[in-house]
Design the sequence.
């Protein structure tokens, strides 16, 4: 036992000394994020290439959990920076007065819609994630389903019981879908569209990426999800076709903000500055087709190319202000009749 | 009526025991009552923190989409309760009262579900009965996404919990009662209904409540396999995580706490009628062989084993298949956890650390607490409060507990704030979260020990701690060991409370499973879940070896 303890201690000291070589006297930044786990190491490493003196401690979770965590910690915030959370969530935090407004260096170079409208902005955008339909080509063929080309197509009775979509009451992507349909079709037609869609829904999921993953596995033929997920699954060999519906697509962005009350304001600002550099944008572009500095964007494999022009003029403020009303309406229409289907 | 005689004036022992009890009551107040108050008071406030009375409740009860979940939750919980307790009772009976072969094998298999994260059965059911399910036709067109899937998952998940409690109740039986019945030529069936069932009654009732509340508060299974079937626990998830509406989340939590109150009062009522089965003169029961009966029991155990192992194997298969159902090559692609959510090996070590602390600290606290409350005398109000606080965690959904901890411990004026984002708060939340079953196990074991032990010891002027050390602990050792392993494995698998509490350096493996499933990566989720299972299994086996020797030493008295 003693021996074991000793070895462990030696290893511990070794690791500690190794760490201290690379990050001597580093500022520790606690960064909350919803960025894909596989990208986190890359993000931190690239940032450290330019700023080795700032050490990022990630707290990563899904968008909903991170948002809930941040709001619950409102009285005594633990995060210094939020790097990679939905702009809709950040809008919520802004309205709660939780964000430290800051105008990062190089803000002019960022596309207009990629920053908060206030001056100085409370948050700045990184990249956009866009709604899309994931169609499993094998299952579609098996059930004789034509590949849909528009949202409206999905209400066709041929798709009955073949569609999954996220429940907007659990998932930000679900709400993004619903709020964009209401903007695309208008209130009345939007709900009429969802009435039609509801008849074809096999089940609603709690997460936004799940419908596409389920489509990838053939658990459903069609998943209403977002393009990023579809592209990732396709890259792994899933028999997927990613459809960008002709009416246009809703979208949200991942964004960066400083949490009010941070003890490391200077380091936090350095990180936010870096988060909108060309280098950072090119890094985002490795996974996302639409980025804050779209001029730098290169096409991403497996992503449909018509995404930028298909993105609707999403009114985030409207969506945020009407969120509660929309969710209640959705819940009353579709969430109360949850009898099992036989 | 021996109890009346025992009642003496408050001695130094009683005072000391009272002191111990108060310490643990204080712990429960700080780790449970105050945080719960912090979150539940939100249900009477609006978003800006102003007191608005019952307005949130009015809103809740006038929304059919929300209240419908109450009915759904009750339906699946009662169904699960009936199925799980029945299955567990017969199983416990087979393991304790038959002479069938391979008992120890089945005992191990039956406890397997406790070793896996609660999301795993849901994942297995998707592979078995989903749209691409391997044996989908067995469902005859019924949909696995919904109540059927939830109930199957919950039975799998709750079975060991019920089994532990019922086994404890069945394992301590006085053989003299059966000898008497035998010599009176009482039929086996009549003996069963007049001796066995009444003896196990308290355990059965406890098990029923535990299963009921475990099911009604679990959000893992409904989340993975529930489809559109809304239950209270997922409603909390929707309110808190989906809409960040803490106030409505608190309302649903309070609605969900009701079963705890009911469980508590019924439990109190039953307890009052409970008399010690194991008197100081008791002789342990040794089952006698009976070919036909043993064979039937063996068959039954085989069925249960197939169910449990089937789910497990499905998960292992799911973890190894490259890309189900289109590429069935086996390999280890799904084990590249570094590319997935969660934090890789670090999170695994963190989980291990959490589990060890939880097992050690939790077991000591739970058993001491149960002993003080069960064997001490006087101060009935405090004792009642203790019992209530000890029952409560069972009914508190992990998500609610986790959030409550944020509000309570991270409040700027809480002196305990330094615990936040540390391993400490994870240990405290986990011990608290799993307090009830451990407490019930300890109480059930203690109850079966006649108070005569204490009174005899007291009359011999032996201080209580000596009786405790020399008699109580050795006699209850099986239960104590069960508690420690129960706490360990649950700390490995728990998700719901800690998902809000882990910090930058305290990632957990079980949270990784949740995140991967949430993202739709169910094969890697199954892979990580199975890693947790293997770890738990290894620890369980080591635990078994280590304790076998100890048990042999201390339980010799049970065999004539």
Sequence:
């Amino acid at each position: 036992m003693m021996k074991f303890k000793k070895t462990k201690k030696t290893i511990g000291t070794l690791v500690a000394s190794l760490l201290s070589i690379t990050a001597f006297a580093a500022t520790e930044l606690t960064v909350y994020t919803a960025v894909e786990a596989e990208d986190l190491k890359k993000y931190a490493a690239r940032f450290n290439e330019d700023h080795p003196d700032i050490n990022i401690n990630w707290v990563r979770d899904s968008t909903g959990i991170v948002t809930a965590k941040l709001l619950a910690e409102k009285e005594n915030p633990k995060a210094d920076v939020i790097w990679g959370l939905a702009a809709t969530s950040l809008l919520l935090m802004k309205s709660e007065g939780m964000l430290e407004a800051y105008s990062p260096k190089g803000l002019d170079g960022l596309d207009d819609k990629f920053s908060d409208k206030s001056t100085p902005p409370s948050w700045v955008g990184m990249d956009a994630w866009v709604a899309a339909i994931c169609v499993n080509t094998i299952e579609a063929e098996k059930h004789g389903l034509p590949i849909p080309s528009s949202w409206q197509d999905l209400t066709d009775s041929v798709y009955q019981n073949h569609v999954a979509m996220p429940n907007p009451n659990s998932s930000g992507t679900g709400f993004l879908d619903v709020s964009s349909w209401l903007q695309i079709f208008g209130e009345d037609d939007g709900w009429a569209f969802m009435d039609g869609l509801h008849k074809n829904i096999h089940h609603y999921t709690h997460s936004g990426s799940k419908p596409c993953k389920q489509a990838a596995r053939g658990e459903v033929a069609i998943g209403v999800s977002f393009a990023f997920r579809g592209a990732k699954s396709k890259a792994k060999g899933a028999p997927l076709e990613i459809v960008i519906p002709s009416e246009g697509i809703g979208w949200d962005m991942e964004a960066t903000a400083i949490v009010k009350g941070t003890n490391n304001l200077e380091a936090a600002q350095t990180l936010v500055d870096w988060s909108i550099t060309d280098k950072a944008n090119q890094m985002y572009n490795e996974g996302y087709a639409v980025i804050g500095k779209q001029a730098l964007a290169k096409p991403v494999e497996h992503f449909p190319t018509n995404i930028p022009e298909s993105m609707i003029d999403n009114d985030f403020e409207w969506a945020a202000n009407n969120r509660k009303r929309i969710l209640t309406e959705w819940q009353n229409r579709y969430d109360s009749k949850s009898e099992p289907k036989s | 009526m021996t109890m009346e005689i025992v009642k003496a004036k408050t001695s130094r022992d009683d005072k000391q025991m009272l002191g111990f009890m108060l310490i643990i009551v204080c712990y429960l107040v700080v780790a449970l009552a105050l945080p719960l108050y912090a979150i539940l008071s939100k249900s009477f406030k609006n978003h800006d923190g102003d007191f608005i009375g019952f307005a949130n409740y009015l809103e809740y009860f006038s929304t059919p989409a929300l209240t419908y979940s109450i009915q759904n939750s009750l339906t699946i919980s009662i169904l699960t309760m009936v199925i799980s307790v029945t299955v567990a009772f017969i199983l416990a009976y087979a393991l304790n009262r038959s002479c069938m072969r391979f008992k120890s094998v089945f005992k191990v298999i039956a406890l397997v579900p406790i070793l896996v994260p609660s999301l795993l059965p849901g994942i297995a059911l998707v592979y078995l009965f989903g749209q691409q399910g391997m044996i989908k036709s067995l469902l005859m067109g019924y949909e696995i996404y919904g109540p059927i899937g939830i109930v199957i998952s919950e039975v799998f998940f709750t079975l060991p919990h019920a089994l532990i409690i019922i086994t404890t109740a069945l394992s301590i039986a006085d053989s003299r009662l059966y000898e008497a019945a035998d010599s009176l030529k009482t039929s086996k069936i009549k003996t069963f209904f007049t001796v066995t069932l009444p003896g196990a009654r308290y355990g059965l009732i406890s098990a029923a409540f535990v299963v009921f509340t475990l099911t009604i508060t679990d959000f893992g299974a409904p989340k993975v396999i529930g489809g559109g079937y809304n239950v209270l626990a997922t409603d909390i998830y929707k309110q808190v995580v989906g809409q960040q509406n803490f106030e409505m989340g608190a309302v649903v939590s309070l609605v969900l706490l009701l079963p705890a109150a009911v469980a508590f009062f019924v439990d109190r009522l039953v307890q009052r009628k409970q008399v010690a089965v194991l008197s100081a003169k008791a002789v342990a029961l040794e089952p006698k062989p009976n070919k036909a009966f043993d064979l039937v029991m063996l068959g039954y155990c085989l069925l249960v084993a197939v169910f449990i192992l089937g789910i497990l194997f499905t998960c292992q298969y799911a973890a190894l298949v490259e890309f189900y159902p289109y590429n069935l090559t086996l390999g280890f692609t799904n084990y590249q956890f570094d590319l997935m959510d969660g934090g890789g090996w670090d999170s695994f070590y963190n989980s291990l650390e959490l589990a060890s602390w939880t097992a050690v600290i939790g077991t000591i606290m739970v058993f001491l607490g149960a002993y003080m409350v069960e064997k001490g005398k006087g101060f009935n109000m405090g004792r009642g409060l203790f019992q209530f606080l000890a029952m409560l965690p069972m009914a508190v959904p992990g998500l609610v507990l986790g959030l409550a901890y944020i509000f309570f411990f991270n409040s700027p004026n809480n002196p305990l704030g330094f615990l936040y984002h540390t391993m400490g708060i994870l240990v405290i939340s986990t011990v608290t979260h799993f307090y009830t079953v451990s407490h019930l196990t300890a109480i059930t074991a203690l109850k079966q020990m006649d108070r005569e032990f204490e009174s005899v010891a007291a009359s011999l002027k032996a201080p209580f701690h000596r009786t405790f050390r020399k008699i109580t602990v050795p006699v209850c050792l099986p239960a104590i060991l069960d508690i420690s392993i129960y706490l360990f494995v649950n700390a490995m698998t728990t998700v719901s409370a800690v998902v809000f509490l882990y910090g930058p350096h305290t990632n957990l493996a079980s949270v990784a499973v949740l995140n991967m499933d949430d993202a739709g990566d169910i094969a890697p989720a199954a892979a990580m879940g199975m890693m947790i299972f293997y770890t738990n299994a290894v620890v369980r086996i080591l635990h078994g070896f280590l304790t076998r020797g100890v048990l042999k030493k201390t339980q010799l008295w049970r065999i004539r």
Residues 2-22 of chain A form the longest helix (21 residues).
